[in-house]
Amino acid sequence: MKRVVFFAGLLAMVLLFSCKDKDEKGFTLTGKIDGLVAGKKVALIALDFDLKRQTLDTAYQTTSTDGGFEIKGVAPDSLMAYRVVFEGEKNQRYPMVFLENKKIEMTGYLDKLRDVVITGSPMNDEFYRLFQPFIQADRRFAEANRALQSVDRLDTTRLQAAMDSLRSVMDDMERIIIDVPKNNSSSIYSPFIILVTTRSQRKGFLDIYKGFTPEVQQSFYGKILFSRLPKDLVGTEVLDVSLRDRSGAPVSIRSSLGEYTLMLFWSSSDKPCQTEIAHLKTLYEQYHDKGLNIYAISVDEDSLTWAKTLDDLKLPWINVRDSVNENSTVAYYEVEYIPHILMIDKGGKITEVTPDDEKIDSVLKAYFEQKQ
User: 3-state SS string over 13-28?
Assistant: First the structure.
């Protein structure tokens, strides 16, 4: 067995989604901000929840005039979050706005950036429709916390009442954090809301993720959320990516699905992998005509070594190769040791993770016998 090694806030997080609208040539974000002086940088910072890489997107920045700014550009195709930052205003909650290829206007005061008003973005309106419960709960929390801080610590009766009030608000916030994404399983904002309002590593959010539509699961923030969840892959949609085969042609996992599909992570130099491959060959010969496919992902660094092994072992199924880094399928599926197998049904859902040979045999036998 070979070990695979790779290197890899709440409302205060100010974000800006972007989504390309093909009917528009680009976006214009105009700001009318009282107190903003000329010569200050105003910019959008791409946010992908990688804290190591909070870099300025130089494509989306400008220099302010007295009381205003204007940023123009074309929104990228994929849903992407940005923070709108103002030079010298590090201690404020930045305004939240959803960028799309339209004329968007932001008005407000420099010393109250969290309260600016955004118009011209239907995406912004839709997000705030979903996010209102969080905003209201945040205000109730602030009020309850101020009330608690104002109580004389010697007045035990009032102190207990204030603590109970604050605890009730916190319980309400916990309920909202669960209910909003759970009740909006087809909304592209739901995984994003989880990411910015709570610790997504909690186990309860895996069940919510499983209830998302495939489109939401495969969205930009759906994938980020999944990467942060405790991994119980069973019941989740297989990641739809394309990896290159020996000829260099891209082959997608989705296009390779059969009645049942085994996704194998392996390496040419690993002897246990070769033992597993011998077993899979037997299964492939037995069930391929009935609909069994195998999508084998090699983690070999050397393409020539991989190609030679394909010839030597005469592997009859789909063979692709992936690099081992933080953006690879290896990282996505947290593959630590190889061989590593995922079993996938014809609908693209994962049914088993790292099953032993006996389990693979029994699942395939039961499935294909009942298909006869």
Answer: CCCEEEECCCCCCCEE
Tokens representing 260 are: 């049942």
My answer on whether 148 and 74 are in the same domain is no
> What is the value of pTM for the model shown?
0.57
- Is 317 contained in some domain? yes
Domain that holds residue 188: 126-228
Residues contacting residue 202 through CB under 8 Å, at least 6 positions apart: none
Angle between helices 156-182 and 122-150 (to 10 degrees): 160
User: For residue 253, what is the domain's CATH number?
Assistant: 3.40.30.10
Q: Is 90 helix (H, G, I), strand (E, B) or coil?
A: coil
Enter the tokens of residue 104: 């968007």
Q: Can you give the CATH number for the domain in which 109 is found?
A: 2.60.40
pLDDT digits (tens, 9 = 90+) for 79-102: 677 788 898 887 667 887 777 899
Query: Which of these, 112, 87, 82, 85, lies nearest to 98 by C-alpha position?
Result: 82
Q: Low-confidence residues of the chain, pLDDT below 50?
A: 3, 5-15, 18, 20-23, 51-56, 200-201
